Amino acid sequence: MRALVVRGVGEPPRVEEVELPAPAPGEVRVTVRAAGVCHSDLSMVNGTVAAPYPLALGHEAAGVVTEVGAGVTRVASGEHVVLNWAPPCRRCWYCGRDEPWLCEQGGVPAVPRGRTAAGEPLHVTLGLGALAEEVVVPEAAVIPVPAELPFEAAALLGCAVLTGVGAVRRTAGVARGESVVVVGLGGVGLSVVGAARAAGADPVLAVDVSSTKAKLALAAGATEFLLSDDTLSRAVRERTGRRGVDHAFECVGRGDTIRAAWRATRRGGTVTVVGMGAKDDVVPLSALEIFHSARTLRSSVYGSSDPDRDVPALARSVLDGTLDLAPLITDRTDLDGAAAAFDRMARGEGARTVVVP
Ligand code: APR
Ligand code: ZN
């Protein structure tokens, strides 16, 4: 089958012919019908996040189960599923506390799952490698969804939407009437914008370095778009009684934008870091300002969600029309066009590209 593979830091991803094993006991084979290109994939291409190579990219996808290994009980062939890049073990201390996003097992075991045409072991992004015609994954990594749910919406539920909606509702608990700023308006940030608006937040200030994001942000529910520059915290203060926002969401994954989000937040407010940044990118915060500002700085991993519970709930919201994912999708392509989506993302253009392999 064909998969989008990157062979080293900074190298352009290319479509390669690769081979996957048959599903072992407890595993399933899924034909991918739609996969989103997420910044975390780009981070493994450009070296922001360390990864083993050759690496099949992609971790935000949906498809149809075509084969099940021995002992699989969760799904049957023909079922539509969303892929989960952090299936919890349900046995560890965190799972026992009902915090499966912090599961000690850390998702699908990071072992190579197939071979390249030359016979090299093929690594797969976050245990999935979903920018491909097929994946073979543990049954815990698939979540059944109704067959009426369009595949492109289903795909986005698996990362950007679960992460963004969860950050607003579960991690931060945004309440009606609270003020929000969202820094970084890709698939994740636009999901945060939409969820904040749906929660009744006002204003919802949407911030990006690229002014082309203004239209997308307003379509997703932002009350105003602001350009990210040195005047940002002043601009945010002017719109929030000189105080700063109740909630800031950082959806870029950079120290300087975490710092900008922090500065835009009021005393006693909360900064939720949603972006995944680099190991050596530090955020300067003085001891005095931490004390005096009384702010909370926290992160949101996978939206503090339980995917097995929250993906089906989000699927119902899409089907009943209360969750509209159309503003997130700006491009559609096939596997051969997927590499270009990485270039667009690196330039800060558009939001999600959905790949139909
Ligand atoms: N200030 C404001 N916005 C910025 C800045 C900055 N200094 N630098 C980049 N951005 C914007 C980009 O212009 C882009 O619109 O951040 C946005 C990031 O969007 P995407 O690249 O589409 O990323 P996305 O997939 O939404 O992921 C965002 O969440 O899951 C993590 O690893 C992921 O860290 C990434 C983040
Ligand atoms: Zn992702």
TrEMBL record:
Keyword terms: Metal-binding, Oxidoreductase, Zinc
Q: Show where the Enoyl reductase (ER) domain sits.
A: 8-356
- Coiled-coil residue spans: none
Pfam families from the xrefs? ADH_N, ADH_zinc_N
In terms of InterPro entries, this protein maps to: ADH-like_C, ADH-like_N, ADH_Zn_CS, ER, GroES-like_sf, NAD(P)-bd_dom_sf
UniProt GO molecular function: oxidoreductase activity; zinc ion binding
Which metal ions or organic cofactors does this protein require, according to UniProt?
Answer: Zn(2+)
Q: Which family does it belong to?
A: Belongs to the zinc-containing alcohol dehydrogenase family.
The protein, known as: S-(Hydroxymethyl)glutathione dehydrogenase / alcohol dehydrogenase
Q: Which organism is the protein's source? A: Micromonospora avicenniae
